[in-house]
Amino acid sequence: MTLKQLRATADYVHSVLTPTPQIRWPLLCQRTGADVWVKHENHQPVGAFKVRGGLVYMNELKQREPDVTGVIAATRGNHGQSIAIAAGRNGLRAVIVVPHGNSVEKNAAMQALGAELIAQGDDFQDALEYARELSEKEKLHFVPSFAEPLVRGVASYALELFDNVSGLDAVYVPIGMGSGVCGVVAARDALGLNTEVIGVCAAGAPAFALSFEAKRQISTDVVNTMADGISCRVPDPLALEIVLSSVARVLTVTDDEIRAAIRYLFADTHNVAEGAAAAPLAALLQERSRMQGRRVALIHSGGNIDSNLFAATLTVAN
Fold first, then answer.
1. Around Cβ 227, how many Cβ atoms within 10 Å?
2. Dihedral sign for Cα atoms in the order 253, 255, 256, 257
3. What are φ and ψ of residue 196, in 5° steps?
4. Beta strand segments in the chain, E
5. Residue 96 C-alpha from the chain's centroid
6. Which of 225, 220, 175, 170 has the alpha carbon at shortest distance from 194?
7. What span, in angstroms and rounded, lies between the C-alpha atoms of 153 and 158?
8. Would you call 56 exposed, middle or buried from its count of C-beta atoms within 10 A (0-12, 13-18, 19+)?
9. What is the DSSP letter of 177?
10. Residues 61, 245, 225, CA angle at the centre, nearest 5°?
11. How far apart are the C-alpha atoms of 34 and 89, rounded to whole Å?
12. Are 243 and 182 in contact (CB under 8 A)?
């Protein structure tokens, strides 16, 4: 992706959305020993970064296939909200498949945006496979969780970050299906920067980390993490190819580390973080000695955590 392409896509995104802030929080700097900037994608209208990619994907789909009438996607919540809001803007039916036991509040948000919700399977991969099947039966356009327009769209947040914060040594990015981390890579490379991009997975969903270590795709049979936004068990091959070639390292963080990071983010910034969004801080804290005095950014990917889970997380002693 060229810088011209990324800038043009960002211009479209900014015609719909206001750029989100990147803020240096002194208490986080004290806690980590680094010069820490947080990119607040939790300030998006749907509370997460995914909306950028959904808007771009749906706009280009409608231009390319003007007769399309509906779309279908699988999600744990944020991708689904993105597709729902973008489909609504383009007058399209949106069917969203989630696994059983999905976030109650993310489900409610998707339905409030006009999505038809279907619960199927035990995890994201089950929901994804069912969505592919149903797309053929219902004659709906299947929207994948990783695709070039999605990456171009979410790369707009990385451009905002790099344009506003110079000299970043590293950016920590949660890895779900890969659009976020690949968007950061695309922006960094297009701008010709030397910033390290560090991917972060949950220890209970380590497929990308295992694949990075082995230099080949490795899937897992199950996922077990409270961070639903990064609960991937089958890495997308195209996303993995970019991660393998362009990411410095991929770290795993435990659910206990994620919960602690949620508490720290709330205490130090008064922002609510869902599990995936707290994973970058958890990873930075793992690398505290390595990152002393360095200038780093954390991608706060979203704040869509169920209120009961957030309350339970806050009540645990640090």
1. 29
2. positive
3. -70, 135
4. 22-24, 35-40, 70-74, 93-98, 116-119, 141-142, 170-174, 196-202, 249-253, 295-300
5. 17
6. 170
7. 10
8. buried
9. S
10. 75
11. 41
12. yes
Token match 């599990």: residue? 275
Neighbouring C-beta atoms of residue 280, cutoff 10 Å = 30
Give the CA-trace dihedral at 104, 109, 115, 116, to 10 degrees: 20
Distance from C-alpha of 91 to C-alpha of 77, rounded to nearest angstrom: 21
Rounded mean pLDDT for each run of 10 residues along the chain, 318 residues in total: 97 97 98 98 95 96 94 90 93 94 91 94 91 93 94 98 98 96 98 98 97 96 92 94 98 98 98 98 98 98 94 82
The radius of gyration of the chain's CA atoms, rounded to the nearest angstrom, is: 18
Cα 233 to Cα 217: distance, rounded to the nearest angstrom: 10
